[in-house]
Amino acid sequence: MLFNSPEFIFGFLPLTLIGFFLLARRSHALALAWLTLASLAFYGWWNPQWLPLMLASIGFNYLAGRSIAARLQTEDAGTQTAVAAQQSMASGWSSRSLLIASIAANIALLVYFKYAAFALNSVAALMGSDTHMPAGELPLGISFFTFTQIAFLVDVQQRKAADFDPVRYGLFVTYFPHLIAGPILHHKEMMPQFARADIFRFSADRLADGCVIFILGLFKKTVLADAFGGYARNAFAAASTTDLSFFEAWGAALSYTLQIYFDFSGYCDMAIGLALMIGVQLPMNFHSPYKAKNIADFWRRWHMTLSRFLRDYLYIPLGGNRLGLPRQQFNLMVTMLLGGLWHGAGWTFVIWGGLHGLYLMVFHAWRRGVDAFGLDAALRTLRPVCAPIAWLLTFTAVVVAWVFFRAADLDAAMSMLRGMAGMNGALLPEQIIKFVPPLANVADGMGKVPYLADGTVMGCVEMFLMISLGMALTLGAPTVPELRNRWRYALVVPCAALALQQVLYGQASEFLYFQF
């Protein structure tokens, strides 16, 4: 079930909210149980065969968390009875051992479903074999609910999580606004909220605010993201077999850059709005990343909870920046390579992660150089000149990396990059050249097909105007949660009209992060 589908908006959502608030009058526990069952139904709607897998994962991690907590109590007691001490020595399982074993089981599950075919095919290719194992269907949201529960186990071992109510834990993992595409949550962010009394009382103000944020996110997805997806789809499909010109390649790359921005930003707004309808606050997961003036700031703004997870549970345990520049560079590259692989089982995702690792390595080396030579004051003086250059370099680097993220394979990615570099010529689409005859004098040939639009002058103009509008919105507009209420309500009517038209008369499209 998709947030942008009629059955969700007009069926699942109102029934879930009505049932929750009616049951809350009788029992808070029943209301939470209802919300958990509704979340499981939401997940099972897509493909019921994966529901037992999710339930097994929840049960395993809940019991593992309780076992780790119980072992911590034994270890903290300091003075054990002789019998308890003998049992502890006989079992050989410390809290840390239990944590490692539990995380290994979660990673093994993820590897089996997500990476087994990729690993076997890569080994076969290295050995010169033609054997190819097709990738099976991926359980929806497996990366998100697995990482969420790994974070829970680590929090338990670090004594940051102590609430083991089974209903609240089940809801923490399955809560439908974040279940499919994040954000990746910490136990301490959600479990205390489900214990608050005020979320069980209906609030018209909360419902209205949640609906407005949801509608603005729906507009981003259905009107903006899907439009840019239409421009990018044909060009990336053609890149494998056709040499795209400079304008076509950059049009495709920018279209996808804006598609994934509005798609993911729209999902995050919709998730925040849905949670807010019953008074639950999800963490911000998206904060105008294309405004970043360096790559580190980009990762503080893009998929913020994933960046936090990678930092807290991978980069810092590897040593972070505490062991000198060479070790920091190594830690950055490992973290980003694994972050790229988390997004998908393919070499294009590995290269995307590696590029961002390289960007971060260059940036941190630059910052250390600036600090070592005391150049901060000079750079602040030159800020009016340096800031636009820094933004352009950062944005261009991000766009180039997105090509690998989107391309079907390495050949298609390299074809697209050759076009972006002007190696296939900088020809304008044929229709534009014919429409403005003097342009023919600057073109070496004719007959280029504009893959980005519908083959007409107006189609090309529409694409250019849409990219311009998208860039203006990403760079000039605040995020939806930052908008003051009066602006949210001023925008909601036209956005709702356009979005609902797409919902009712268009075809609901998947969110891009559903694939990861």
Short note summarizing the structure:
With 516 residues, the protein is mostly helical. The protein has helices at residues 6-24, 28-46, 51-77, 82-91, 95-114, 116-126, 142-157, 166-174, 176-179, 187-194, 204-238, 246-276, 295-301, 304-318, 325-343, 347-373, 376-381, 383-406, 410-420, 430-435, 457-476, 485-505. It has three domains: 52-77 and 89-202; 212-286 and 449-516, no CATH class; 291-426.
Explain what this protein looks like in three dimensions.
The longest helix has 35 residues, at 204-238. The chain has three domains: 52-77 and 89-202; 212-286 and 449-516, no CATH class; 291-426. It starts with 5 loop residues before the first helix and ends in an 11-residue tail after the last helix. It is mostly helical and 516 residues long. It is 71% helix and 0% strand. It is built from 22 helices and no strands. Mean pLDDT is 84; it is low at 434-453. Helix 16 (347-373) packs antiparallel against helix 18 (383-406).
Mean pLDDT: 84
Assign an overall shape: globular
Largest sheet: none
The tally of helices reads 22
Q: H/E order of the elements?
A: HHHHHHHHHHHHHHHHHHHHHH
Output the structural class. mainly alpha
Low-confidence stretches: 434-453
Number of strands: 0
Range of strand content: under 5%
Radius of gyration: 25 Å
Q: What is the topological layout?
A:
Layout: H1 6-24, H2 28-46, H3 51-77, H4 82-91, H5 95-114, H6 116-126, H7 142-157, H8 166-174, H9 176-179, H10 187-194, H11 204-238, H12 246-276, H13 295-301, H14 304-318, H15 325-343, H16 347-373, H17 376-381, H18 383-406, H19 410-420, H20 430-435, H21 457-476, H22 485-505
Helix pairs in contact: 1-2, 2-8, 3-5, 3-7, 5-7, 11-12, 11-21, 11-22, 12-18, 12-19, 12-21, 14-15, 15-16, 16-18, 18-19
